[in-house]
Amino acid sequence: TKIEDQVLVIFGASGDLTMRKLIPAVFNLYKRGFLPQNYQVLGVSRTHYTDQEYQKLAVLENPHLPTLEKDELAVFAQHVRYQAIDTADITGYHTLKERLDNLFKECSISKNCIFYLSTPPSLYETIGANLSKVGLNKESDGWKRVIIEKPFGYDLASANALNERLLNCFQENQLYRIDHYLGKETVQNLLVTRFANSIFEPLWNRNYIQRVEITSAESVGVEKRGGYYDKSGAMRDMIQNHLLQLVALVAMEPPAKMDATSIRNEKDKVFQAIRPLTQEEIRKDVIRGQYMASTYKEEAMTGYREETGVAPESRTETFAAIKFFIDNWRWADVPFYIRTGKKLPTRVSEVVIHFKPNHHHLFSDKKLPNQQNILVFRIQPNEGILLKFGLKVPGTGVNVESVNMDFLYEDLSNTYVPEAYERLLLDCMQGDATLYARGDSVLKAWEFVDPILKAWKDDPSIPVYGYPAGTWGPENAMNMIEGEGLKWRNPC
Ligand code: BG6
User: Which residues are noted in the entry as substrate-binding (predicted)?
Assistant: First the structure.
C-alpha cells in the first residue's frame, strides 16, 4: 500500500526509546522505500536543539543507527526536524501547531500526523488534552493518530481514567495503544500457525491440550531503569500487557475476517473469559520473587535491592508466575501458566502447548511426562517452531524417544524480518490498528491483575521470595505446575 505523506511527531524526542527503537525503525522504513518523499519526523521535547543539532544527535551520530552508511543517513537526516516545547504548558502547543503548519506548507504535506507519546506516562493525559485544545485532534484537513506507549495506566482505576480522558479528546480509531510484543513476527505467526494449517486447529482445545505455558525470561536485571522498575514490577511491566496479549492470541477463536475489528473482538472475548482469581488463589497460584546477589557462571551478580534507583527494602517483584483458567467452551479446565522474570539463566520467550498424553500406553508400562507431544513457539531469540514427538529408538525392542522437528526463521534465507517497532509504526502510518491493543482489552487485562496487585500491597504476609540471580526464579514457582512429575520447560 502507498503511504500517504505525513509528519511523525515524537514527544520524548531525546529519550532512550526514541534513540534506540523509534528513529532506527523509521530509518529502516525509509531505507526499504516505504516512506513517501513528503515525510517528516518532528522531535519534540523540553531541551533546546536546533534542527541540525537534533539531526546529529538522533541520526548522524546515533549509535543505534548504522553510522557507516553516511550518505543514506545524511539524506534521511533531512527528513528530521526538532521543536522544543514545554509539554506541560499549553503555550507550547500553539508553537507546535504553527511549526506543523509551516512544515506542511514547506514540504507539501497534507496535514496527516501521528503523535507518538514516548514520554513518562504521567504526561500522556496532559499531552492528549493540550493537543485537542489547539485543535490538533481534528481530522477535517488530514488524519491525526496518537500512539501511546506502555504502561497504559498504573492500575485499573488510573488506566480507566486515562482511557476516558483520551477518549474525551480523540476517537477510539485515532488511538493506537502500542504493545511491542504484538509487532514481533513470531507473535503474529501464532495466528498463521493456528488458522492457516489444517492440522493444529482441530486439536486446539480442552480435548487434546493439557496445559499452556508462556515464559518470557530475561537474563538482564533492571539495568539503568531501577527508578521506573521499582514502582512498576514484573506484573505491571510484562504481565499486564505483553504476556496477557500472548494469552489472547493463543486462546482466541478464529476471527470472521483478518481485520482489526474482527481480531480485536475475538481477543476481547478471551479477556472476558479469564476467570478472576480469588484471594485464596492469589496466595496459592501467584508467585512473586526478587533476584538476590549471587555468583552465576563465575560472575558476581548484583541483587535487585543493590541496583541504582531501587529502595534498599524494596518488595517489588522482578519475577512473577500465575496459574489461571479461561472459562469458555474451548478451554474449560485447561490451566494456563505464565511467568516472567529478570536475571534468569537466559533470555527466552516462548509459548508451549502441552498436548495430553495417550490414553493407553502401549510402549511402556507407565506414562512418561517427557514423552508428551509439545508444540513450542519460540518467540525470541532463535525464533522458530518446534514439535516434539515420540520416535522408536532404532535397534532391538521398542523403546520410544522424544525427538524434535523444528523450523528456524534463520533458515529462511534472504528474508528480512522487521523489528517490532518498524512493523507497528508502518501499520499506524497506514491506519491499520490490528496489531495495537484496543481500550476494552487493556482495561480487562488490568481487571485481572488489579486484585493481585492490591493483595500484594495490602497483605504483607504474602511472601516475596528471593531467588539467586541466574536461576529460574523461586522454588515455589518452579514447582507450581500441577500434576505428577510435571515441570516448566526451562529452555537453555
Ligand atoms: C519492555 C519492558 O516492555 O519489554 C522491559 O519494560 C523488558 O522491562 C522489555 O525488558 C522486553 O522486551 P523484549 O522485546 O526484549 O522481550
Answer: 180, 184, 218, 237, 342
From residue 371, give the alpha-carbon distance in Å to each of 114, 180, 297, 400, 408.
51, 34, 31, 8, 22
Using one digit for the tens of pLDDT, what is the confidence trace for 238-283?
999 999 999 999 999 999 999 999 999 999 999 999 999 999 999 9
Query: In sequence order, what DSSP letters do the residues of 440-488 get, joined into one string?
Result: HHHHHHHHHHHHHHHHHHH-TTS--EEEETTSSS-HHHHT-S-STT---
Annotation-wise, does 237 bind a ligand? yes
pTM, two decimals, is: 0.94
CA 44–ligand 1 middle distance (angstroms): 24
- Determine contact, residues 156/162, Cβ cutoff 8 Å: no
Q: Of all atoms in ligand 1, which is nearest to the CA of residue 150?
A: 3
Q: Determine the pLDDT at residue 316.
A: 97
Answer yes or no: are the C-beta atoms of 213 and 489 closer than 8 Å: yes
Selection from 159, 156, 152 nearest residue 180 by Cα: 152
Alpha carbons 60 and 72: distance in angstroms, whole number: 10
Q: How far is the CA of 180 from the centre of ligand 1 (A)?
A: 9
Q: Which residues have C-beta atoms less than 6 Å from ligand 1?
A: 150, 218, 237, 349
Tell whether 236 is in a known binding site: no
Closest CA to 174 of 149, 153, 152, 147: 147
Contacts of 61 (CB under 8 A, 6+ apart): 67
Apex CA 24: angle with CA 112 and CA 93, to 5°? Answer: 40
| CA separation for the pair 359, 124 (Å, rounded) | 54
CA–CA distance, 403 with 294 (Å, rounded to integer): 35
Q: Is 194 annotated as a binding residue?
A: no
What is the 323 CA–ligand 1 centroid distance (Å)?
A: 22
Phi, then psi, of 83 in degrees rounded to 5 = -140, 120
